[in-house]
Amino acid sequence: TGVQALIFRAPCICVAPPEPPWGVGDGCVGCKKCIRELGCPAIVFADGKAAIEPSLCYGCGLCAQICPVWAIEGGKE
């Protein structure tokens, strides 16, 4: 108990405009590391691979930093 803080190394969705959404390429191996370590609501698991829901993606790129096979590709519009 007591005072607790959560510090992110990404822009705050409340004060920064969103970047273009990211996407998962064919290189995804289905390890679910992005889901386990981030808990981002934009990342879903379907057909044995991760996918990113564009309407929920803020474009921060944290998921790309977590992916061990670099399957998550930069935000492009």
What does this structure look like?
It is a single chain. The chain is α+β, with helices and mostly antiparallel strands and 77 residues long. 14% of the residues lie in helices and 16% in strands.
In short:
By secondary structure, the chain is of the alpha+beta class. The protein has 2 helices and 4 strands, in the order E-H-E-E-H-E.
What are the defining features of this structure?
16% strand, alpha+beta, globular
Distance between the termini: 44 Å
Based on Cα principal axes, name the global outline: globular
- Radius of gyration (CA) equals 13 Å
Question: Mind summarizing the main beta sheet?
Answer: 2 strands, antiparallel
Strand content: 15-25%
Give the overall average pLDDT: 86
- The run of helices and strands is EHEEHE
Helix content class: 10-25%
Topology of this structure?
Layout: E1 23-24, H1 33-38, E2 43-46, E3 49-52, H2 62-66, E4 72-73
Antiparallel strand pairs: 1-4, 2-3
